[in-house]
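Why do we care about 3D structure at all? Because function follows from shape, and shape follows, mostly, from sequence. That is the central idea of this module. The next example makes it concrete: a single protein chain, its amino acid sequence, and then its structure expressed as tokens.
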Amino acid sequence: MTTNRSRLVTQIITAQIAPPLLSSALYDVGADGVPRILPSVGGITLNVRVGDSAFAFEADHAEPAVSARHPDDKINAAFCTLACIGNVATVASGEAKGERGVVTGKHGGIEHVMIDFPERVMERMQIGDAINVRATGVGLALDDAGDVKVFNCDPDLLDKLGIERHGARFSVPVARIVPARVMGSGLGRQTVARGDYDIQCSDDATVREFGLDELRLGDIVAVTDADNSFGRVYRSGAVTIAVVSHGMSHIAGHGPGVTTLLTSASGALEPHADPRANLATILGLR
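And the structure:
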């Protein structure tokens, strides 16, 4: 495959490690009617990283490793858009200054970017430390790819995804296939380039049928009958390739979140099963 990567802009963008946040109501009532108080978004989460199960922790929307945002909402919108999965991040202040990590996901609504660092590095970090991201990837496109569009993807990561081109079709390794009927929070929003949308896991029969309880943070997945070309919509035959960016949730309409990497309204993306299709393996993070 060839791309326009030589024409992409590369910028240094900066944000800060975001503090952990909880619902102002304290208790969140799940789709099962049970009220819970659980750790949620933000912070430096030492024991949750890409490669771990999206269901392994007593948490709600857990964001792996380090969550970053800029305190100015307008600047943060640019930060969340320009940072791409696979971008290199460097700690710019504090005791861990100079250490490097990798962008692994985006979380809409709260508007966080998740960045993976080894635990030994996270132990030396604190809330408010500055992180620089070497941002490149916005505007990335495959040459002569028809309606296939690329979002949120560092060009080096695109090269490592193992995509094979067969004429007008693209074969993509994925860890799991997800039906569009279970996609929830974020559906319909035009935030494909800076956020995510959630896989609802409240229907036990569908969870069993598609093995959704085996999803891992960092998994590359295919959402079938989902077109993310101009916002997130249901479209029969379309395919979207995404990465699992945050963990499960009990709240109605929510669940593990996925950040879009590629989409095709015509279904030119053909997923095939590969258990190695996870950022931890693809980028050598674990």
